[in-house]
């Protein structure tokens, strides 16, 4: 009896679950038809007719339109399957997370595998691309943010007039998919048709159409002379104010102590400072070359070794560099420890390819520790990093001002429905901001104040650079060839590593225990046959690894790929 009761409860639960699932409603897009009409004034009208296959209970539909890379949308309308325009109280739209969320409602009812169509119309401003030789539409005609398939999609693009040359392209796939589809047809000199079938959930259908210049006009920059004058004045005054403020601060706090002495050759680094600290002393900033010099300095001191590996396939050569950890970083300075941890985060032997698109995350931490180390030397009167953060607030204020100034233009343009009224001004203001930021960055670069001790150390450092670059060759004897490796990281910081290596050309090369060039640079003994060949290999290493250290995922430029254009977004029913 008890088992029977449990079975009945289980069956009732299953029935309730399936009934609830059916009530929630299942659907997919039976057909999405999109008509895009390019206008002379650089806007274009989009008509989306979406036919749903519905099974279950439904009471609303929605469409999310991405606003990324667009100026704005206008003339938004919704029509039912009979072509009747919905009244304002039957749908609403709002902006959120760089999307226009459009939702229309109807009396909820049950559907049994029925087809129902709705049409959405809107005008796109600022959605075309203008290039030197052509203009272009790059549009995600079928949106990706949906969890159901699109059984069939058709897109028609209508140019404003006939042209002799039309270049269509089509991409169907996930974001970034560059595989082209050839499901398109140039119907006539102003109409192109695209299509696709069974487009999977979360996939785009992206159309690209390019045509000769002169068919459409670029957006008018200014529609209102008074607004233009106001924006012009604001754009002029922002850089002026930033310049005056930065100049006064520099006069008050940013002048370094000057050593009125002729620079003469010095034969060792001042105060036995590490290469990266010398870089900050001379340049008052940390560059990726300073961090690379730190890596070489650690290698020379026996904490790691580097091997150049060259693979050759027919005439194609591929180089990468292998880093092998030899000793623990315990006992090193904090910035050196962070450098070692950044390279050998997961294992003790890594390649430059392993570090690509990953090591860039370590740079801010390493730079911060270098600045802290410099602050402890009493060469500067305060922590450089903290001092620069203070002046970066000036630029943050500029951004805040822009976010306060720009919204009224957006709101006014939206209320009045003036195409191109407010968006173009953003370009002018952004140029002003760029100039202001450049002014601030230039002054900030010179803001750190050297103490008397720091000024003396800088003079010695420049003398050391003179020695590495141009000092007499007779100063180097056979017994001092070991200084080549010890001073090489400093030469890298100064940018004179090639000149430093060249000074040893007349001496027999001594094998370095920390760097092993590829076989192409080696003689019969397995070591490079000269310093010049070592220099050639090391120069290639420096250039390649610097690029690896700063590389990060992503890129720029539209190129051609699914999801690369404007539009897109999502849609659904409920």
TrEMBL record:
InterPro entries noted in UniProt: DUF2207, YciQ-like_C
Keyword Lyase: no
Domain DUF2207: 33-211
Domain of life, per lineage: Bacteria
TM regions (residue ranges): 226-247, 394-416, 422-443
Assigned keywords, A-Z: Membrane, Signal, Transmembrane, Transmembrane helix
Keyword Ribosomal protein in annotation: no
Signal peptide, first to last residue: 1-23
Ranges where the Predicted membrane protein YciQ-like C-terminal domain occurs: 266-504
Protein name: DUF2207 domain-containing protein
């Amino acid at each position: 009896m008890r088992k029977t009761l449990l079975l009945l409860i289980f069956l009732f639960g299953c029935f309730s679950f399936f009934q609830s699932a059916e009530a929630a409603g299942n659907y997919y897009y039976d057909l999405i038809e999109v008509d895009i009409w390019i206008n002379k004034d650089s806007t274009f009208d989009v008509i989306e007719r979406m036919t749903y296959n519905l099974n279950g209970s439904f009471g609303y539909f929605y469409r999310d339109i991405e606003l990324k890379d667009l100026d704005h949308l206008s003339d938004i309308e919704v029509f039912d399957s009979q072509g009747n325009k919905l009244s304002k109280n039957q749908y609403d739209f709002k902006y959120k997370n760089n999307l226009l969320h459009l939702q229309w409602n109807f009396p909820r009812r049950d559907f049994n595998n029925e087809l129902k169509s709705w049409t959405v119309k809107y005008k796109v401003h600022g959605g075309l691309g203008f290039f030197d030789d052509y203009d272009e539409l790059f549009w995600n005609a079928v949106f990706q943010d949906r969890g159901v398939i699109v059984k069939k999609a058709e897109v028609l693009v209508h140019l404003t007039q006939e042209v002799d040359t039309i270049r269509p392209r089509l991409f169907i796939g996930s974001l970034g998919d560059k595989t082209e589809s050839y499901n398109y047809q140039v119907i006539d000199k102003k109409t192109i048709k695209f299509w696709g079938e069974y487009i999977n959930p979360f996939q785009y259908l992206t159309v690209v159409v390019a045509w000769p210049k002169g068919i459409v006009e670029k957006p008018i920059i200014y529609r209102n002379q008074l607004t233009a004058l106001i924006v012009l004045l604001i754009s002029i005054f922002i850089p002026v104010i930033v310049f005056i403020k930065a100049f006064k601060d520099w006069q008050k706090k940013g002048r370094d102590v000057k050593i009125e002495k002729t620079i003469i050759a010095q034969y060792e680094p001042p105060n036995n400072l590490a290469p990266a600290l010398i870089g900050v002393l001379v340049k008052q900033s940390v560059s990726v070359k300073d961090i690379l010099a730190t890596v070489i300095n650690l290698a020379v001191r026996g904490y790691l070794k580097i091997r150049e590996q060259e693979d050759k396939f027919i005439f194609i050569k591929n180089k990468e560099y292998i880093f092998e950890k030899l000793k623990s970083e315990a006992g090193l300075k904090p910035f050196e420890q962070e450098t070692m941890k950044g390279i050998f985060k997961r294992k003790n032997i890594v390649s430059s390819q392993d570090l690509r698109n990953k090591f860039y995350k370590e740079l801010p931490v390493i730079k911060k520790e270098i600045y802290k180390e410099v602050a402890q030397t009493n060469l500067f009167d305060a922590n450089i990093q903290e001092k620069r953060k203070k002046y970066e607030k000036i630029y943050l204020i500029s951004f805040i001002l822009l976010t306060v100034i720009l919204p009224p233009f957006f709101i006014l343009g939206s209320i009045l429905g003036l195409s191109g009224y407010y968006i173009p001004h953003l370009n002018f203001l952004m140029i002003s901001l760029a100039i202001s930021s450049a002014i601030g960055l230039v002054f900030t670069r010179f803001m750190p104040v050297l103490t008397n001790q720091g000024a003396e150390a800088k003079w010695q450092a420049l003398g050391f650079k003179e020695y590495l670059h141009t000092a007499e060759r007779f100063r180097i004897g056979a017994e001092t060839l070991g200084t080549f490796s010890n001073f090489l990281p400093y030469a890298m910081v100064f940018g004179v590593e090639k000149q430093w290596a060249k000074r040893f050309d007349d001496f027999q090369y001594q094998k370095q225990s920390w760097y092993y060039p590829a076989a192409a640079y080696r003689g019969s003994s397995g070591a490079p046959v000269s310093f010049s060949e070592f220099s050639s290999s090391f120069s290639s290493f420096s250039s390649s690894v610097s690029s690896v250290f700063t590389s990060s995922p992503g890129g720029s430029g539209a190129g051609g790929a699914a999801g690369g254009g404007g539009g897109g977004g999502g849609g659904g029913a409920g």
